[in-house]
Specification:
The protein has helices at residues 16-25, 31-49, 54-64, 71-75. It contains four helices and no strands. α1 runs antiparallel to α2 and α2 (31-49) packs across α3. The protein is globular and about 40 Å long. Helix content is 52%, strand content 0%. It is mostly helical. It has one domain.
């Protein structure tokens, strides 16, 4: 345990998009709009964290999601799931 760091150092650049998003949410017209913005932001940042290009990922999700008929079909679309490259 002596070699275990007591804090995790995270670069400031990882928080910059969140701070900008947080400021934008203050000007949402409704609570539902702010929640929708936060959900979309979360999906984009999770895609980035999993090494995906956000626009391509969202395009694929919004194209395939209407055809999902089960929870398993939706889970395949999550950013951390392995995907076959069929593009």
């Amino acid at each position: 345990m002596a070699n275990t760091p007591s804090t995790i150092i995270v670069p400031r650049t990882l928080f910059a998009p969140f701070v900008i998003g947080r400021k934008n949410w203050l000007f949402s017209a409704s609570t539902k709009g702010a929640i929708a913005s936060a959900n979309l932001y979360s999906l984009i940042e999770t895609a980035k964290a999993n090494g995906l290009e956000p626009y391509g990922y969202l395009k694929a999700v919004f194209t395939q999601l209407p055809n999902a008929n089960s929870v398993a079909d939706i889970e395949v679309l999550l950013p951390w799931c392995e995907k076959e490259d069929d593009e």
